[in-house]
Amino acid sequence: xxxxxxxxxxxxxxxxxxxxxxxxxxxxxxxxxxxxxxxxxxxxxxxxxxxxxxxxxxxxxxxxxxxxxxxxxxxxxxxxxxxxxxxxxxxxxxxxxxxxxxxxxxxxxxxxxxxxxxxxxxxxxxxxxxxxxxxxxxxxxxxxxxxxxxxxxxxxxxxxxxxxxxxxxxxxxxxxxxxxxxxxxxxxxxxxxxxxxxxxxxxxxxxxxxxxxxxxxxxxxxxxxxxxxxxxxxxxxxxxxxxxxxxxxxxxxxxxxxxxxxxxxxxxxxxxxxxxxxxxxxxxxxxxxxxxxxxxxxxxxxxxxxxxxxxxxxxxxxxxxxxxxxxxxxxxxxxxxxxxxxxxxxxxxxxxxxxxxxxxxxxxxxxxxxxxxxxxxxxxxxxxxxxxxxxxxxxxxxxxxxxxxxxxxxxxxxxxxxxxxxxxxxxxxxxxxxxxxxxxxxxxxxxxxxxxxxxxxxxxxxxxxxxxxxxxxxxxxxxxxxxxxxxxxxxxxxxxx
Length: 497
Hints:
Blueprint lengths: L12 E5 L3 H12 L3 E5 L15 E2 L11 H17 L4 E10 L6 H9 L5 H9 L8 H15 L9 E3 L22 E10 L2 H18 L4 E4 L2 E6 L2 E6 L7 E3 L3 E4 L15 E5 L3 E5 L16 H14 L35 E6 L6 E6 L5 H16 L35 H10 L5 H7 L11 H13 L8 H16 L4
Helix pairs in contact: 1-6, 1-8, 11-12
């Protein structure tokens, strides 16, 4: 909670529980339509799956195999919207799929499309043909052609795949790729998009909501590290850090956006090797069920080894070892419960579960992904506006996402400690305006220093001192904040500082 937070007075008001990407998108959509909003999170903004994702803005190529054309079409539409409205954060990304053979995977894809992959016949087929999941060149080309059509592009088949030897097309002016590999004889190419900093994107959504609220004399508050206790129609916001008094409010609607708290490999999984700045590469993901508290999730050694082995099999010249891994993280996605044999086969769409049996109507958001956050926010806002009998006056489809305080090309490891974005003046501006309450908030989700290999204890102490100077923490807390951040970087990210 920041100094500009006050008791909620305007009506009606909506309480959004969860300050991740979906909660922020909902809050922005509501303020855009004249509704006061209070956002509360038990941790920090973008603390969970938002900051621990693949950082892809994509249509979901693999969802085609399961026949989820509606989700792919929606995701591709939202990708186009984000490329247009959020150029500070989202940029085109060329992806390549290494392929071992021309044929393969067709029968398994048909079984998957029909939902028979989990039937007795599907299991029988997999026992007879262990590599049945491996997708061949022609199947991938067909998938890319369908992907392209759903995106509304006119790119032809000849630009989607290239066999060994001829250079691949490059629509963005980079060097052409000549592919030569003893095992993966072909490579297919397509375009999606990447968001370098979903953390800062989430903050930008909340910042835009705050500006909208100021323009329209609405209440807008963000309370991080705060618990929401429900007592009938009253909700009490209790500061976990013990620095602020309890706030009581009586919201009209509660949005539960707490998420999990409330390409081809031989085994059929999709794994990405993505650029992260000029000097680092992001490899992932794995799909594993997780039953513990989401904030305790870490990348297990076997998952890291699996990804290393996969990269080395496709790019043997990389010769990756565990020593090359400078950072690892694990995010827990809020997927619906189902009878799927693997997490990868669980639908990635979203829906809204409405509970009106209690004293307060609660709308719970289930599923969703980074790409479709705006569409989800729009859908939730429609439900809320209808319940409050407030007409929709605007939508966010063409509204630009405000410029980031950290430019797009400085949002990863290219940023150095001597860069202008890390001057004391800039850090102070971020502390004052971006709801920073702890050193970890600042390091992980504001300045993105977890991706900077130059991060050291002296820099952490400097930042903690700035927090004390700004009155966010007491000077006596500097040492404990530094120690807590060092421990968290080691335990959650495997990063020694």
